[in-house]
Amino acid sequence: xxxxxxxxxxxxRVKHKFELPKVTKLKPxxxxxxxxxxxxxxxxxxxxxxxxxxxxxRVNYLNLDRIESTTGVSAIMGRAFHNxxxxxxxxxxxxxxxxxxxxxQYGLEAAIKYLEEYNDGFIKYSKTVxxxxxxxxxxxxxxxxxxxxxxxxxxxxxxxxxxxKLEHDIxxxxxxxxxxxxxxxxxxxxxxxxxxxxxxxxxxKMVYSFxxxxxxxxxxxxxxVQYYLLxxxxxxxxxxxxxxxxxxxxxxxxxxxxxxxxxxVIKDNPLFFDFYFRLYEDLGKALLGEMVYVPNFNDLxxxxxxxxxxxxxxxxxxEVAKQMKRHKVDNISDLLKRKIAKxxxxxxxxxxxxxxxxxVKSIDYKNMQPQxxxxxxxxxxxxxxxxxxxxxGNTYDLYQYEPSVGVKMAKLHGxxxxxxxxxxxxxxxxxxxxxxxxxxxxxxxxAERVYPNLPARNAGKMQLLVGEDGQxxxxxxxxxxxxxxxxxxxxxxxxxxxxxxxxxxxxxxLKKEVQTVLxxxKMVELGRFANDKNxxxxxxxxxxxxxxxxxxxxxxxxxxxxxxxxGVRQNSELxxxxxxxxxxxDEYADLANSTNKVxxxxxxxxxxxxxxxxxxxxxxxxxxxxxxxxxxxxxxxxSRAAGIHLIVTTQxxxxxxxxxxxxxxxxxxxxxxxAKEIDSRIILDEAGxxxxxxxxxxxxxxxxxxxxLQAYYAS
Length: 715
Description:
It is a single chain. By secondary structure, the protein is α/β, with parallel strands linked by helices. It folds into four domains: 22-55 and 154-347, Alpha-Beta Complex (Lambda Exonuclease, Chain A), CATH 3.90.320; 69-148, no CATH class; 370-445, Threonyl-tRNA Synthetase, Chain A, domain 2; 463-596 and 624-711, 3-Layer(aba) Sandwich (Rossmann fold), CATH 3.40.50. Helices cover 32% and strands 24% of the residues. The strands form five sheets. The chain has a ten-stranded mixed β-sheet. Strands 1, 2, 5, 6, 7, 8, 9 and 10 form an eight-stranded mixed β-sheet that branches. Strands 11-12-14-13 form a four-stranded antiparallel β-sheet, with helices on one face. The radius of gyration is 41 Å and the shape is elongated.
């Protein structure tokens, strides 16, 4: 029998668990400094520039020189974004914040303020962001995207510090060795929070486009270790993870979130420390004059390979030989493939943070005054304005603001709905600018309106009062310069009341200069003025209207003959001007649509009989509406110089009724509340009347631009 022999145990490689580096904070005098080293502080940007910009590294950090030049607008926007988040998380002594709404409001204000105060001459703009106004808009968009992201947690009690500049001389326990880092570490830490037993470092960034999660990001690797060492030295606690929060200031076309987070769990990334400590060591060697080779991790094509090769020291022949033997390969390409395969976990850089709180992230507008609500709503969209004053009016209060540089007037009109939403009212009007001022204004409907009565005295010779504007100023126009007036608006809008006030003024204050002819197809509005001394005609029937308009045309032609004989061009130039005639046509659409037949002339018809041919006169007929439209068009085109003026009203404006030829001569326009936007455009050539409040709220245009007013009430 064979003697049993004891089998030798198989040798197994023990995989040591990665332990985080232990950091001890040292007093500056305990650190061994080398007098030959010009650099006395190392930050993340120092190491990054050492790898990617060696010339500027020497200029900035060794020669201690600074090349004066403009700063890229993206960098300025990034600083503004950080300023806003510092306030948002309660890190600024300039703002006392008690709730989330205030944090959002004050944070946004701080971000915009930074940009506004930055000297425009020191900003290098880009094609994407070509002005300060555009920069403000982008920062506001990014800030709002960040704070409204579902994963953003606002718990000030968790924040240990924010935007803190740290500087420490440290000793590190790493791979069984004790190392004193000879150059002071420094850096600005954006935010550190303590969540339960975890200390988490956050680094928010505002970006044009997100980082590629499938690439090895050397910059984030360096930052992760730098932040870990500094925060560990500052707090005495090992941070557990670093979270990079990227917020895009360009809108995602696919509607995906504007914020993306890249989370690095410290204990899962030992190669980060291999990379950092080798880079730190090479920096020290370079400062002492030794030749070193470092990766350019901004390289477009081979940055990943360079970083992996650098971490595993594949540029060191002895190290390469040792690792080839271990991995049983005979060339560096196969060795590199093995290394990259084992580095796969580094590509899992993006992870979703579990939302800890469900909260509505919005600015608390409830406790703000109207002027503050308007300002903050515009600020949300990146438009900065400064409140100046409020003018209380009859129907509207006018809030006036000074716009910051770059705010486009035309763009403000696009945010009417946003202003209405935040104020909880309808019918807000934008004045950009307020006439005869450098302000922009927002006319906000009053809860309690005042209806101004028609003044006892008239505005002056041949002047007709219309109403009062938002600043309480009387608005009037010269009838001679009008020369014709178009009034439009729906039922109950105040159109008839305004028409009544005009006729009262004509009959009371201008009775020596003016005669009126009234056309009243509804027979309810103007009948009370029919017996007034200076009313020379009152007509309700379409047939009568045709006859009266024909007489007006004849009068016009007769007056032109008189003007020609006197050698003058218009009625006011005569030694004794002829009385002005104002034709007031109420509900012009009803008259223009009238189907009554009226005789327009005769034609000769030849009839053949057995005894011979007989010629007879046969009357010709046309619809009254067609004839009325032709006569009104003729009067509108020619009657001004002859001292004949039209005031035309309609409840149903349409292109067919108010034709281009007629409207071209009805240059003074008064629009009350209309049913549709298209009705407003027919009257004024612009929208707005459909948003009015009714009851005399009107838009008036006498060729100098559209203004809002409250029409005078006339009983």
